[in-house]
């Protein structure tokens, strides 16, 4: 039986959440909002439902999914040998944009983890996601990758999901635009050493403050744990994207425009904004100069720019500052064509 969803939602939303829970219990797929990006969810304990996610996303079977839970205490239900630092982080940041990689127990099927003995878990901070998890009950959880085709830009509105996966998903819950706009921060605890696997919605400095110690940065290239987000090409728009320091941007843009190509220059600094338009085939778009606001908009803007049929997106390199880690990471992967 399905329990009553949380308050704070309209009656219509509550009815949709109940319908979504029934679809999930019957082995279907439901796209749902989280504070980071929209997820494509299925019952974690139902391998045939999990396989639907891989099929819809066209995602290779060895790329593990994040498991979404409705309460911190549910960590016990899916993971074992949970280190103290993982509890600390969960208590401090959940619900919120943080995923912890832990040793899984036998309730997690192989297909969720791509055969690995670890599982990624997070408690999302979105009323609809939490109400959906509550409706499923404490013995269930939602395996959910971002609701986009493998390698493409993650969706930050229900319309993005509709456009990209619409007919293939059993239901899409609309929770408006995602507040964070970039995926969760992923952290692992191999040998009790906290390590950042993917920068995201929680800043590195915030993690280090709570842990009262350093967090290892991702060591690129020689990662032993598979993360699809750690492939070089990911989160990519269809239009080729290149990153240049501010002082090279316009020169590059002009060189491409001379080849009759349509260029969009995407800046964030005030310097860049005062530069003159040198050619009719060069347009400029000013992104926020604050990394959180930049991250919030990034995916929706990339989708918008893709529709505008530019030949190249030239992006002003973000500042070399820890607060920009997540934005820089996504731009670098988006540029890896
Ligand atoms: O914000 C988010 O995390 C969103 C929302 C929907 O929660 N989800 C998301 O899922 O970004 P996805 O599947 O697009 O990315 C999950 C990342 C992948 O890079 C995956 O490889 C990694 O998490 N991951 C999952 N389980 C893992 C594990 N056991 N070990 C290492 N990495 C893991
Ligand atoms: Mg993804």
UniProtKB/TrEMBL annotation:
It is found in: Cytoplasm. GO terms for molecular function: ATP binding; double-stranded RNA binding; L-threonylcarbamoyladenylate synthase; tRNA binding. It comes from the Bacteria. InterPro entries: DHBP_synth_RibB-like_a/b_dom, Sua5-like_dom, Sua5/YwlC_C, Sua5_C, T(6)A37_SUA5, TC-AMP_synthase_SUA5. L-threonine binds at residues 36, 68, 122, 144, 184. Residues 14-202 form the YrdC-like domain. GO terms for biological process: regulation of translational fidelity; tRNA processing. Keywords: ATP-binding, Cytoplasm, Nucleotide-binding, Nucleotidyltransferase, Transferase, tRNA processing. ATP binds at residues 59, 118, 146, 154, 198, 235. Its EC number is 2.7.7.87. It catalyses: L-threonine + hydrogencarbonate + ATP = L-threonylcarbamoyladenylate + diphosphate + H2O. Its main location: cytoplasm. It is an enzyme of class 2 (transferase). Required for the formation of a threonylcarbamoyl group on adenosine at position 37 (t(6)A37) in tRNAs that read codons beginning with adenine. This is Threonylcarbamoyl-AMP synthase. It comes from Nitrosomonas oligotropha.
């Amino acid at each position: 039986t399905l329990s009553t969803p949380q308050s704070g939602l309209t009656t219509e939303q509550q009815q949709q959440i109940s319908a979504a829970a029934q679809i999930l219990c019957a082995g279907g797929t439901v796209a749902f909002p989280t504070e980071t990006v929209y997820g494509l969810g299925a019952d974690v304990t139902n391998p045939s439902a999990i396989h639907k996610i891989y099929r819809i996303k066209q995602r290779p079977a060895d790329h593990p999914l994040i498991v979404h839970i409705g309460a911190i205490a549910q960590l016990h239900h899916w993971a074992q040998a949970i280190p103290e630092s993982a509890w600390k982080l969960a208590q401090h940041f959940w619900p919120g944009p943080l995923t912890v990689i832990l040793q899984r127990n036998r309730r997690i099927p192989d297909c969720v983890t791509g055969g690995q003995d670890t599982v990624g878990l997070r408690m999302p901070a979105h009323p609809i996601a939490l109400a959906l998890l509550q409706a499923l009950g404490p013995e269930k959880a939602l395996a959910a990758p971002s609701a986009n085709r493998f390698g493409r830009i993650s969706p930050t509105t229900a319309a993005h999901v509709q456009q990209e996966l619409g007919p293939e998903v059993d239901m899409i819950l609309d929770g408006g635009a995602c507040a964070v706009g970039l995926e969760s921060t992923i952290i692992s605890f191999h040998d009790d050493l906290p390590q950042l696997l993917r920068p995201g919605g929680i800043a590195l400095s915030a993690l280090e403050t709570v842990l009262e110690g350093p967090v290892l940065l991702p060591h690129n290239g020689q990662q032993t744990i598979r993360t699809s987000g750690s492939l070089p090409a990911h989160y990519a728009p269809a239009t080729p994207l290149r990153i240049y320091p501010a002082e090279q941007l316009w020169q590059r843009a002009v060189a491409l425009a001379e080849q009759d190509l349509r260029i969009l220059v995407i800046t964030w600094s005030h310097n860049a904004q005062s530069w003159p338009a040198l050619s009719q085939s060069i347009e400029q778009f000013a992104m926020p100069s604050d990394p959180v606001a930049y991250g919030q908009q990034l995916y929706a803007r990339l989708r918008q720019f893709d529709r505008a049929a530019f030949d190249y997106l030239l992006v002003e390199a973000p500042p070399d500052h820890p607060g920009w880690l997540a934005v820089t990471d996504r731009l670098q992967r988006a540029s890896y064509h």
